[in-house]
Design a protein that fits this description.
mainly alpha; 8 helices; about 80% helix; about 0% strand; flat
C-alpha cells in the first residue's frame, strides 16, 4: 500500500495529466487512504517543525488552549485539513457544475484530494510552503479538467472562483472588523 501511495504521489508530481487519467475509476477507499496518508504525513511534519520552533523561541509555547503547541498543530492539520478539503471540494463542485462538469461530486473531490499532493507533501516547509499551495491549485485545475472532462478554461474559471470568492469575503470581513475596532476603541484620557 505504501508503494502504491508513493507511486501515485510521484505520478501527481511528475506526470499529473497521465496520473489523473489513470485515476478516473479509483474507488473511494483508495482515494481516502491516499488522502489520509498524505494528511497524516503533513500533520506530523508540521507538528515536528512546531516543536523545533518552540525550542528556539520558547514564547511560542504559551500560544495554546491548555495543550502543547505541537499537539494542537497536529490536530488542526489533521482534522482541520480533512474538513477543509471536503468543504472546499463541495464548494468547488458547485462551480464545476455551473461550468458544465457532470461527472459527479466525487470526481471533483478526487481532483481536490489528488491535487493537494504538493501542498500535503511540502506545504509545511517554512517560507516556501505557499509555492506548493499554488502548485496544488494548478494540479486542481488539471484534475477538474481531466476528471470532469471539461475544457481548461472552464476548469480554471471554476477553481479561480471557488478560491477567490472566499478570499475576497475574508478580506472584506477582516477590513470591516479592523475598521470597526479602530472607530469604536476609546482613547484613554489622562488627567493631569
Amino acid at each position: 500500500m505504501i508503494t502504491s501511495i508513493f507511486g501515485k504521489a510521484k505520478g501527481f508530481l511528475l506526470t499529473p495529466v497521465e496520473t489523473f487519467r489513470q485515476s478516473k475509476d479509483d474507488e473511494l477507499s483508495a482515494v481516502f487512504s491516499y488522502f489520509i496518508a498524505l494528511l497524516l504525513f503533513n500533520a506530523i511534519l508540521s507538528a515536528a517543525f512546531a516543536a523545533i520552533m518552540i525550542e528556539t523561541l520558547p514564547a511560542l509555547a504559551m500560544m495554546t488552549w491548555g495543550m502543547s503547541v505541537p499537539v494542537a498543530i497536529f490536530l488542526m492539520m489533521l482534522v482541520g485539513g480533512f474538513i477543509a478539503t471536503l468543504v472546499f471540494g463541495v464548494w468547488l463542485h458547485l462551480w464545476v457544475y455551473l461550468f458544465g462538469g457532470r461527472r459527479g461530486i466525487m470526481q471533483t473531490i478526487n481532483a481536490v484530494i489528488y491535487g493537494s499532493t504538493p501542498r500535503l507533501l511540502f506545504g509545511w516547509i517554512p517560507f516556501i510552503g505557499f509555492i506548493f499551495t499554488l502548485w496544488s491549485l494548478a494540479l486542481g485545475i488539471l484534475g477538474v479538467r481531466e476528471l470532469q472532462e471539461i475544457d481548461s478554461l472552464k476548469a480554471t474559471l471554476a477553481v479561480a472562483l471557488a478560491v477567490m470568492i472566499p478570499v475576497i469575503l475574508l478580506i472584506v470581513l477582516a477590513a470591516y472588523f479592523m475598521i470597526a475596532n479602530v472607530t469604536t476603541t476609546t482613547v484613554p484620557v489622562t488627567m493631569i
